[in-house]
């Protein structure tokens, strides 16, 4: 059963970077006048423009160039490349929307706060990949319309580099700075990872940053990452080049390819909700455990129940679900069709069907968008 004593404090918090739950601030649909809803839609349009413009600046390297100092369009394109006329328009838009400031000599400057959020890949506040994820998903709108109308889905490979890399880049600071620190506060998990000869599996390993963080924190640990996406395996292998003696990535279907009784811990970081066959995956993870081993699932820190209006985090997760996660899962026949908003009771149901007896919510708080679950037999 879900450990309710632990869960309450975790459910009330979603983390840093403006991700704190701030209550259900949205006006309900029945209370909105036409003028209020028109204003809301107008503000959403402004936000959409900002997201897409941030994506341009991120991908062109213009924010990184501005982090080196103020620039006009000519200086910016000299530093980072690009077309001067487009650069002028982008700089003016960024200043008009309040991201950049204008110096007395007419150049454009990137203040320290936005610079950290948009360029510091080591910061827990780094959110440029969020714009990249949404922009990458928007490219697939024709395919999404078709899937919504006819059924089926849009597979992960179809979303391409922007979406693949954005997920890895957004998770990376949290894995590098917080993962091992927070897992060390859970005594049984820390003991398993610290034991001589310990081995772990990281299923749905993506860019590999979770595997890398675990290996660096536990010098004797051997890590096997598994993913069904070949470009992700290539990316992870390159990222972990200095740990190649202890960290290995495998292109595999974990429902059939996980070795039995091989691992002390099986991790699934932000991937179970994407999986078309979560019960089969969790069953394979259970079989892969050594005696006294555990499965740790990190997934979205959504509210325990559906609500209308919902918290800001739930609203964002529904957005990811509509545009990426549900279509990805639905691209496979017979999919469970979970979607991003996988609540604790849904995961508990999957876990019980997979042969686990207990699901606990770990006391790891303020870890970005995410919550940690421990599954035991």
From TrEMBL:
UniProt cross-references to InterPro entries, sorted A to Z: Methyltransf_11, SAM-binding_MTase, SAM-dependent_MTases_sf, WH-like_DNA-bd_sf, WH_DNA-bd_sf
Presence of keyword Transferase: yes
GO molecular function annotation: methyltransferase activity
Domain Methyltransferase type: 202-297
Keyword Methyltransferase carried by entry: yes
Domain of life: Bacteria
Keywords per UniProt: Methyltransferase, Transferase
PANTHER family listed in its UniProt record: METHYLTRANSFERASE TYPE 11 (PTHR45128)
Record protein name field: Class I SAM-dependent methyltransferase
Organism for this UniProt entry: Nocardia coubleae
């Amino acid at each position: 059963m879900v450990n309710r004593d632990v869960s309450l404090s975790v459910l009330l918090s979603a983390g840093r970077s403006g991700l704190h739950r701030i209550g259900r601030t949205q006006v309900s649909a029945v209370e909105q006048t036409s003028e209020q809803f028109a204003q809301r839609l107008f503000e959403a349009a402004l936000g959409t423009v900002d997201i897409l413009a941030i994506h341009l600046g991120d991908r062109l390297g213009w924010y990184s160039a501005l982090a080196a100092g103020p620039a006009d369009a000519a200086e910016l394109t000299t530093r980072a490349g690009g077309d001067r006329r487009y650069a002028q328009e982008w700089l003016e838009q960024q200043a008009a929307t309040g991201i950049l400031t204008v110096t007395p000599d007419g150049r454009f400057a990137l203040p320290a706060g936005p610079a950290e959020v948009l360029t510091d890949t080591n910061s827990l506040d780094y959110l440029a990949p969020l714009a990249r994820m949404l922009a990458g998903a928007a490219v697939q709108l024709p395919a999404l319309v078709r899937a919504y109308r006819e059924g089926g889905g849009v597979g992960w490979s179809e979303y391409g580099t922007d979406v693949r890399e954005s997920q890895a880049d957004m998770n990376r600071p949290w894995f590098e700075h917080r993962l091992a620190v927070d897992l060390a506060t859970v005594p049984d998990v820390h003991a398993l990872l610290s034991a001589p000869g310990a081995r772990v599996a990281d299923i749905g390993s993506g860019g590999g940053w979770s595997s890398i963080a675990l290996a660096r924190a536990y010098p004797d640990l051997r890590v096997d990452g598994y993913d069904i996406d070949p470009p992700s395996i290539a990316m992870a292998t390159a990222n972990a080049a200095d740990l190649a003696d202890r960290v290995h990535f495998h292109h595999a279907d974990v429902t059939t390819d996980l070795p039995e009784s091989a691992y002390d811990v099986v991790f699934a970081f932000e991937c179970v909700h994407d999986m078309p066959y979560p019960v089969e995956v969790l069953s394979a993870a259970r079989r892969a455990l050594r005696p006294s081993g555990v499965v740790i699932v990190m997934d979205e820190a959504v509210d325990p129940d559906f609500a209308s209006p919902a918290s800001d985090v739930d609203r964002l997760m529904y957005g990811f679900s509509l545009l990426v996660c549900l279509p990805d899962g639905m691209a496979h026949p017979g999919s469970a069709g979970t979607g991003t908003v996988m609540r604790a009771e849904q995961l508990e149901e999957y876990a019980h069907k997979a042969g686990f007896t207990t699901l606990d919510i770990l006391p790891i708080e303020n870890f970005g968008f995410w919550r940690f679950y421990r599954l035991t037999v």
